[in-house]
Amino acid sequence: MSSVVESAVTALNEKLDGGFDGTAKFVIEDEGAIMVDSDGARAGDEEAEVTMSADAETFEAILSGDLNPTAAFMGGRLKVDGDMGMAMKLGGALS
C-alpha cells in the first residue's frame, strides 16, 4: 500500500467518524484504491455503489478541505461513476 493511500485512509476515517451508509471506492491514479463503507475506510478494490477517481494532488486537496468535492467534479478533476446521489452524500461528509 502506498503512503498516499495510507494517509488518505487515516484522513477519511477521521472525517467519517464511524463509517458511511453505503459503499464507495476512491481510485487514486497511480497509487491504489480505497473502500469506504459502514466499517470506515480501508485500502481495497472491491465493487461499490459509486467509484470516484482523481489524481493524488486532487484527492489530497479534497481531504484537506482546500478543494470542495463538487467543485472538483464540476472542474473535471474528479470523475464519478455510479450512484451520483451516493457521491453527493459522501461529498457532503467530506466537506
List its salient traits:
single chain; 95 residues; five-stranded mixed sheet; alpha+beta; globular
Q: Could you characterize the architecture of this molecule?
A:
The chain is of the alpha+beta class. The protein is built from four helices and five strands. It has helices at about 5-15, 55-65, 70-75, 85-95, and strands at about 25-30, 30-35, 40-45, 50-55, 80. It has a five-stranded mixed sheet with strand order 3-2-1-4-5. Helix 1 (about 5-15) packs parallel to helix 2 (about 55-65). It starts with a helix and ends with a helix. The mean pLDDT is about 90.
Short description:
The protein is of the alpha+beta class. It is built from four helices and five strands, in the order H-E-E-E-E-H-H-E-H.
Shape: globular
- Cα radius of gyration in angstroms: 12 Å
In total, the number of strands is 5
Classify the beta-strand content into a percent band: 25-35%
Uncertain stretches of 5 or more adjacent residues: none
Q: Order of strands across the widest beta sheet?
A: 3-2-1-4-5
Task: Please report the distance between the alpha carbons of the first and last residues.
Answer: 25 Å
Overall helicity: 40-55%
Largest sheet: 5 strands, mixed
Structural class: alpha+beta
- The number of distinct helices, counting runs of at least 4 residues, comes to 4
Q: N-to-C SSE series?
A: HEEEEHHEH
What is this structure's SSE topology?
Elements: H1 3-16, E1 24-28, E2 32-37, E3 40-43, E4 50-54, H2 56-64, H3 69-74, E5 79-82, H4 84-94
Parallel strand pairs: 1-4
Antiparallel strand pairs: 1-2, 2-3, 4-5
Helix pairs in contact: 1-2
